[in-house]
Design goal:
Blueprint (H helix, E strand, L loop, with lengths): L1 H21 L2 H27 L7 H4 L22 H7 L25 H10 L9 H8 L4 E5 L4 E3 L11 E5 H6 L3 E2 L5 H8 L2
Helix pairs in contact: 1-2, 6-8
Length: 201
């Protein structure tokens, strides 16, 4: 980093001399710019060195003091180091035979079995019904109709108000033609297309 600063300072000095000889202000401004750049590099280097953690380690701090309270073996040898905490924790886990009587442990329920009948019914209720098949002749009739159907937010089907799937859900009334233009498709349960076309024939 210091070599770059030295090169920039020498270049700035050379340009300053050139500016004095040629009486050109351009070289003087370039010399000033190089000097400012060198100063910024010096400041950045100083900040980087200041933030860098000290790599030196105090040798006195790394050596643990020996106290007279340390246990000594009868033969004068150093005692064995204590076992790590992880090894001590493994001894606290009981053996497989100590976990209790296997007969007392309830068997897990099969993965494919539903929790209860209500949960299964709720899952079926939340699923969107199928799409009603509409003949092309009926589709041409529906394009000109303004009869009202209902849609449910974030669901792709439109329904009659009496549809059993709608139930207590929040519905949005909309014209059947507009619903089809917006990309909604007819419900296969209440069959709104067939009902509306039959009412207008």
């Amino acid at each position: 980093m210091l070599y770059i600063v030295l090169v920039l300072v020498l270049a700035a000095l050379g340009l300053l001399v050139t500016a004095l000889i040629t009486a050109s202000s351009l070289w003087a401004w370039v010399s000033i710019g190089l000097s400012v750049l060198a100063g910024l590099i010096l400041v950045a280097d100083w900040l980087r060195r200041r933030r860098r953690p000290t790599d030196r380690v105090n040798p006195e701090a790394s050596v643990a003091p020996v106290t007279s309270d340390a246990p000594v073996a009868p033969d004068g040898s150093a005692p064995e180091p204590e076992k790590p905490a992880e090894e001590e924790q493994t001894t606290l886990i009981p053996a497989s035979g100590d976990l209790g009587d296997p007969a007392d442990t309830p068997e897990p329920a099969p993965a494919d079995a539903p929790a209860d009948a209500s949960a299964e019914a709720e899952t079926t209720d939340d699923a969107d019904p199928g799409e009603e098949e509409t003949p092309e002749a009926d589709a041409a009739v529906l394009a000109d109709l303004e009869d009202e159907v209902v849609v449910v937010d974030e669901h792709p089907r439109y329904h009659l108000r009496t549809c059993g799937w709608v139930g207590t859900r929040d519905t949005i009334p909309i014209g059947v033609g507009e619903a089809r233009q917006l990309g909604f498709t007819p419900c296969d349960r209440c069959r709104p297309n067939a009902t509306l076309v039959a009412a207008h024939r």
